[in-house]
Amino acid sequence: MAINSRIAKVEGVEDQKWYHGMRPRRDIEHLLIQDGDFLVRASDGRTNNVEIILSIRSETKGLIHLTLACTEGKWQLGLTSKGKKVHRFDTIPLLIEHYKKHKLSNSLILKRGVHRPDWLITHEKVTFDTKKDELGAGNFCTVYKGKYDKGDEQVVDVAVKLCHNSTKDSEDPNKSADEVRAAREMMLGEAKAMSHFVHQYVIQLYGVACDHPPVLIVMEYCPGGSLDKHLQKQGNDIEIGERLCYILEAARGMRYLHSRSCVHRDLAARNCLISAKGFIKISDFGLSKLLDGKAEEETVDEESPQIPLRWMAPESLKKPRKYSKASDVWSFAVLIYEVLNNGQKPWPDWPAKKIATHIRKCQMPDLADSTPAELKELVGKIWVQNSSDRPTFREICLKIWKVLKKVQPPKPNKFALNKLPGVERTITLRECNNDDDDTNRDSQDLPNNTNKSTMEDEKNAA
């Protein structure tokens, strides 16, 4: 994919800690706090050509965004006062150094360059073949299997989400440039959310390469694919004990996210991936929200939420729509239904209006006959009208662990997910203690499915 010619002329800027690439304006404004704070970024907000923007905090004028112009290979401020001498520079770093010593206007001078976060990486660290490595494609992005150089001679397999840079690149030629741009900003928002999370049951973000187009989001590669596809393919070959392991691992991932004030808003089997070690990983944070402070919910005025109807809680169907930790818990019960029904979604052939009516009345489908009674009881406590009456994920983890003590999972080599190419599960369950969510510590692996090694005391379940 060709890189825009204008951005390709920028020399030296991508090595600077104050260069933030193609991060949208709203993502960087809160970083500029004191008078003279500055950073440089790239934007195609006004045209399809990428522009270089100098963003500065002024004590008197607030935030200022200046376009840097390149004429005959020389860089200058895009707007200068009439009659004022125009200073031109071979590189942007030289321009920045000049205006650290000389005023831009009145009393404004560049003082402190705001550093980019560690999760912004360079394109050179990522390699993939667009012809051979494609894993999937959507309207606004294509996902490839690739390699990421972590440094210290560590190269790992990754999934690379390439954000389309124009309507020409998009799968849907009818999409406008604004729609493509909005989708890219949404993906950058997803990556920003993921940068806060490090947990064994949450997909890992390695970084975002956004110094120039195309923007690349680099994530942990899960060769097992999505949980729903695995359930649909293996069907009744999956023992109930193995299914309970899937459910517990997803619950542990969600318990961690809620401890980090993250509401996922799109929890479903399709958004759970299977790692190379055969563990369930929560993924797809495109619709997630970080709650402020100790807030438990967020009210959103959305005309048409993008969240699929079957997984929505009753309070999310009313206006104003409410999304909360409790609405994630509701969606989790739908995920339990999927896991126990071989990946089949509830009411597969029903019209949307009928589905919405049943959800509003809490008239949810029955679970499979093979479902343990304690799990049916748990789901019954989740699918209730009053969201404050639903259990938390900490309580859910404890309950599922107790069920697993009665329904022994199979030995690791008997797990059906070992049939997936590139997947090998060598332990039944990982021990996960109460304080793991607070420390980000990776818990110890449990070797196999003996009573002692697989089932610890209930106090360790959450």
Characteristics:
12 helices, five-stranded mixed sheet, single chain, disordered C terminus, alpha+beta, 462 residues, six-stranded antiparallel sheet
Please characterize this protein's 3D structure.
The chain has 462 residues and is α+β, with helices and mostly antiparallel strands. Strands 6, 7, 8, 9, 10 and 11 form a six-stranded antiparallel β-sheet that branches. A five-stranded mixed β-sheet has the order 4-3-2-1-5, with no helix packed on it. A two-stranded antiparallel ribbon has the order 12-15. Strand 8 and strand 9 form a beta hairpin. The chain is elongated and about 80 Å long.
Indicate the topology.
Blueprint lengths: L4 H4 L16 H4 L8 E7 L7 E8 L3 E10 L2 E4 L14 H10 L10 E2 L12 E2 L6 E4 L3 E11 L2 E10 L13 H18 L10 E5 L6 E5 L6 H8 L5 H20 L2 E2 L8 E3 L5 E3 L6 E2 L6 E4 L20 E4 H16 L11 H9 L12 H10 L10 H14 L29 H4 L11 H4 L8
Parallel strand pairs: 1-5
Antiparallel strand pairs: 1-2, 2-3, 3-4, 6-8, 7-8, 8-9, 9-11, 10-11, 12-15, 13-14, 16-17
Helix pairs in contact: 6-7, 6-10
